[in-house]
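For reproducibility, we list the full input for the zinc ion complex.
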Amino acid sequence: MSGAVGIQAGRVCPGCGREESVPIVWGMPAGDSFELAERGLVSLGGCLRDPEGDPVLECRACGLAWGREGDPTADEQALADLLRVTWPTVLRALGAGWRWEDPGPEDGFRWFVSGEPAQLSIGVDAVGFVLARPLVAWSPRQDVVPSGGLRFTREQLQWFPAEVTAEAEAIATGVRRSFRWCRTCRRPAPPEAFDRTERMCTACDEAYAHVAG
Ligand SMILES: [Zn+2]
Ligand SMILES: [Zn+2]
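The corresponding predicted structure, in tokenized form, follows.
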């Protein structure tokens, strides 16, 4: 989370249950840390470090300092719980950055998506889980949920994670190949969020259309 400022999405304070925690900057504050702290976007931890490891977040609601680098977000922990494995198992096999698609499609699965822009989604149900391309707004999920090969059982994730990883990477690689690079913000965008005529992402198109004319 290094470099992140502001309230960290999905990090729910174990003290008060609120989602209002900001990163702690440890050591001598440098650069704009003071200004960020004044605006409440980070917390200054000071120079007295704990040899056991410092907490990385401070809750703005109750003041609790908590969390460690690499902890799962609430959504990531929820995914691990649904898959009935530990978070490290999910992390090793499927990577991180999982966000719950809420509300997801009404298809019996609980869907999570990972990647920025989204590159992989996982749907969990009573039987196991499926890996699929991320849902795009204009495409019904039935088109992207595979019927056969990409269905896995929880046991496969537990005992044959390499197969799951290979399938996950194959999907994510294919999705990344479809990305176009925006010539304005110079970030990748999925095809549905890219204007081919303007050769920029739709976000830039909306933000700068009146400036560029
Ligand atoms: Zn709290
Ligand atoms: Zn752009």
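The mean pLDDT is 87. The pocket of zinc ion (ligand 1) is lined by residues 13, 15-16, 18, 59, 61-62, 64 (CB under 6 Å). Both points were considered when choosing residues for closer inspection.
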